[in-house]
Amino acid sequence: MKNFITVKDAGDLKEAFAKAEYVKKNPFADQKLGNNRTMVLIFFNSSLRTRLSTQKAALNLGMNAIVLDINQGAWKLETERGVVMDGDKPEHILEAIPVIGSYCDIIGIRSFARFENKNDDYEEKILNEFVKYSGKPIVSLEAATRHPTQTYADYVTIEEHKTKARPKVVLTWAPHPRALPQAVANSFCEWMNAAGYDFVITHPHGYELDPSFVGNAKVEYDQKKAFEGADFIYAKNWAAYADPNYGKVISTDRNWTVDSEKMKLTDNAYFMHCLPIRRNLIATDGVIESDRSLVIPEAANRVVSAQAAIKGILETL
Ligand code: CP
Known about the structure:
This protein has helices at 13-25, 31-34, 49-60, 93-102, 118-122, 125-133, 148-161, 183-195, 211-214, 223-227, 260-263, 285-288, 295-314; strands at residues 38-43, 64-69, 77-78, 91-92, 106-110, 138-140, 168-173, 198-202, 218-219, 232-236, 270-272. The chain is of the alpha/beta class and 317 residues long.
């Protein structure tokens, strides 16, 4: 069964870009593919872009789309096996998953890292239970360790705007008051490495990402040095990965905020962020609103990436 969870599920990236460009140019060409098919989108966490873009993608493909907010109107779900369910969670995920699977053809699921247990997060406990027990293909709408439809859209946006065969792409950590998952940063690393770009990651000491995602990327602790000659700056906050600080905010240093002066160090780079963005913390108003900012086209490409991913699954059903 085909799922869309990691970069490997996208196959050859040049072909993935061509598939995305096809659905962008022909958004309603494959409506018969999804006719009488249903996609259920399950959200354990809040969303604006992923919710709307994935629904729109499914509708473009002729599918029915049903959205379930687990925290608003559904029974609270127990996720631990073996517990005596005498608390406030009346339903176990092990019944809920196959029931949901019986109502649809494809499941999309958003389930962030909980930062309670690093192994549970990095083993993708919730996502893998859906893969195992639903009997249906799964599209990750951001899991504990990856956000594949976001990064597919990021990759498409870079391919659309690059002027060099091998652009310099910089992922920079930026400050944020709350502990955010590493999923977007991890996924970005995975796809940028697979794309073969000149890929540099910059962050303060203590914010090292999982080495299996970093791969062969260059890590540069001096943010200004990292920005030199860059073609794309991708800003994102993430909480610490390394023990003993896993899931913690260990710095909110505003010297890491992306501003116009730092952007001048680049080769007239485009600015990217997955949104939502905390203005004047992650990046200044001027950077976000500049004519080199891609945050809106990047978000618009979320429909394209979701549609290409879902279309690929529908073609296997
Ligand atoms: N970028 C992104 O996933 O946005 P949402 O959290 O609003 O879906």
